[in-house]
Amino acid sequence: MSNEMILRAKVRELVRAGKLPNRRPDRVWGGAAFAERECMLCGASVKQDELALELEFKRDDDGGVTNPCLHVRCFSILDGELRNRETAGRDSRNGDPVHSATPAAPSAGLQV
User: Which of 51, 58, 82, 94 has the fewest beta carbons under 10 Å from its own?
Assistant: First the structure.
């Protein structure tokens, strides 16, 4: 199994486990990592000399926000899987329609 296939499977598992929303993020920011953080998807460190992407998912339950950090490549894989879910229009956990908010349009600055 290729590394990409493993990471795609990890995205699906994170969604099934409720650790990641079943929709695309509300916002995405990118820039040089100012401190090493663990990539939510692959588990490796996003080093200070690498580009880091931080995602914002507004949580419905308590109004809080989840902000995972990812490598650019890992984000690309995550985004592809979440887009596939939207295209399919169904939540694979139970067959319910996917409840997704349309992501905010990118604006100027570091937001991707």
Answer: 94
Could you give the CA distance from residue 81 to residue 67 in angstroms, rounded to a whole number? 18
Residue 27: in which H helix or E strand, if any? strand 27-32
* Count of C-beta atoms within a 10 Å radius of residue 107: 8
The predicted model gives 39-60 an average pLDDT of: 87
CA distance 31 to 33: 6
Positions of E strands within the chain: 27-32, 37-38, 45-46, 51-58, 65-66, 69-71
**Domains within the chain, CATH numbers bracketed:** 3-88 (3.30.1740)
Q: Please report, as a single letter, which amino acid is at residue 17.
A: A
Spell 78-92 as b/e; 16+ CB within 10 A means b: bbebbeebeeeeebe
**pLDDT one-digit tens code per residue, 68-77:** 889 999 999 9
Residue tagged 């349309």 (tokens) = 102
